[in-house]
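Narrative of accomplishments. A recurring question from our advisory board has been how the design workflow behaves on a single, concrete structure rather than in aggregate. To address it, we present the structure tokens for one chain from the evaluation set, followed by the sequence designed for it. No filtering or post-editing was applied between the two.
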């Protein structure tokens, strides 16, 4: 019996292209939706040093990419690139994930915006959606007005131990605007175990708290019901409804 091969440089078996599609795990060009960068945010760490984070979506339900190259760039007010760094990430099926590049140095220049550029020439592969390996629990943020500190517990629910796990934390304000980002690397997490995560920031967050939402312009509507207690429990109906309305 001749063993089928998906990498013989020919369009055979049930392939939809040369060595792609059909029973081949490699997805043919144009067979996958492009990854979408939902937002990108730049944070100043100190003068001339910045962190950049992008939130990215892979909306393909049964397609993954083990290697996605990208370029992180910082721009000055004139739109010139003042810092650039290349990296590589991956995307599981139907996944939202963060791309983080920290401590990008601009040589003292001020960065006003940034971008994460992802080309469309990487390879997609047919894949089944995997179960979530890790669970984040007990997230606690304290001292946001001075020196913010976030603690959390990372639980490994799988029967395997993992090494060099990168974890990115994104802090949002009450308007769901990202106001802080940090990343750490866990050297090892054993099977069926829990590890404590700690993220710190040297400066306070610039944010709108939930208690400050009332200071924003709002529309207010007061509703009065027309039940019996409001319209007929009086010697002069429809009182007390009219008096309440006047008040």
């Amino acid at each position: 019996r001749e063993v089928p091969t998906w990498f013989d440089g020919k369009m055979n078996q049930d392939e939809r292209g040369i060595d792609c599609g059909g029973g081949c795990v490699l997805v043919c060009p144009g067979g996958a939706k492009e990854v979408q960068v939902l937002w990108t945010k730049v944070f100043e760490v100190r003068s001339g040093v910045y962190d950049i984070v992008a939130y990215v979506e892979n909306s393909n339900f049964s397609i993954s990419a083990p290697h996605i190259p990208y370029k992180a760039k910082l721009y000055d007010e004139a739109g010139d690139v003042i810092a650039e760094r290349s990296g590589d990430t991956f995307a599981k099926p139907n996944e939202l994930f963060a791309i983080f590049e920290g401590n990008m140095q601009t040589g003292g220049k001020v960065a006003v915006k940034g971008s994460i550029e992802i080309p469309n020439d990487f390879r997609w592969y047919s894949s089944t959606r995997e179960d979530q390996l890790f669970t984040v629990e007990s997230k606690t943020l304290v001292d946001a007005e001075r020196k913010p500190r976030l603690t959390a517990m990372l639980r490994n629910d799988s029967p395997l131990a993992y090494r060099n796990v990168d974890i990115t934390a994104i802090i949002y304000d009450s308007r769901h605007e990202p106001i802080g980002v940090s990343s750490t690397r866990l050297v090892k997490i054993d099977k069926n175990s829990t590890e404590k995560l700690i993220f710190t920031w040297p400066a306070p967050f610039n944010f709108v708290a939930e208690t400050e939402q009332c200071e924003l312009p709002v529309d207010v509507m007061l509703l009065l019901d027309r039940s019996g207690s409001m319209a007929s429990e009086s010697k002069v109906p429809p009182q007390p409804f009219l008096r309440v309305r006047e008040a």
